[in-house]
Design goal:
The protein has 161 residues and is an alpha+beta fold. It folds into 2 domains: 6-90, 2-Layer Sandwich (GMP Synthetase, Chain A, domain 3), CATH 3.30.300; 95-158, R3H-like domain (Ribosomal Protein S8, Chain: A, domain 1, 2-Layer Sandwich). The chain contains 4 helices and 6 strands, in the order αββαβαβαββ. A hairpin with a 4-residue loop joins strand 1 and strand 2. Helix 1 packs across helix 2 (62-76) and helix 3 packs across helix 4. The radius of gyration is 18 Å and the shape is elongated. The protein starts with 5 loop residues before the first helix and ends with a strand. The model has no long low-confidence stretch (mean pLDDT 92).
């Protein structure tokens, strides 16, 4: 895992917050930004809060994913060091993470009970990673990503398959 200095993280957080505040101001919204470094995920998490921000989440997080992408481009074009950016709006990502963990565990139980693989809906790489990591220590289960973006999906199957 690449270590990123606190100076680089603070600079990236400043650029990201400036970019997002300008973006939301043009959209007629006031936001509050809270940035923190996630050692485990090796990423800068920027939590946004404010009134009427649900429009910026979108169906299955499509808008927040796009906002995260353009913020990452804006931040990383100004730096020699790549900093992974994760944007959360009003706790959406954490709620989605908990939902994905539950989906992973429930699907694993179904696979164990029926002995048949379970294919999940297409997900972005971040969401697939949550499923993979949730089930990686289960000796009876294995996971595999299949397909091509943006329709890449995860299959949960018995470990002996």
């Amino acid at each position: 895992m690449i270590m990123i200095s606190s100076e680089v993280v603070n600079e990236a957080a400043g650029h990201a917050e400036d970019f997002l505040k300008k973006f939301f101001k043009k959209a007629g919204r006031d936001i509050k930004c809270d940035s923190k470094w996630d050692e485990e995920g090796n990423s800068l998490i920027i939590s946004l809060s404010g009134d009427n921000l649900s429009d910026f989440i979108g169906k299955k997080g499509s808008v927040i994913d796009s906002l995260q992408y353009i913020t990452s481009l804006a931040v990383n074009k100004k730096s020699e060091n790549f900093v992974r950016i994760l944007i959360d709006i009003d706790g959406y990502r954490e709620k989605r993470r908990q939902d994905l963990i539950k989906l992973a565990l429930d699907s694993a139980e179904t696979v164990k009970g029926e002995g048949e693989p379970v294919s999940l809906e297409p997900m972005n790489p971040y969401e697939r990673r949550i499923i993979h990591m949730t089930l990686q220590t289960d000796p009876d289960i294995k996971t595999e990503s299949r397909g091509k973006e943006p329709d890449r999906f995860l299959v949960i199957m018995p470990a002996d398959e």
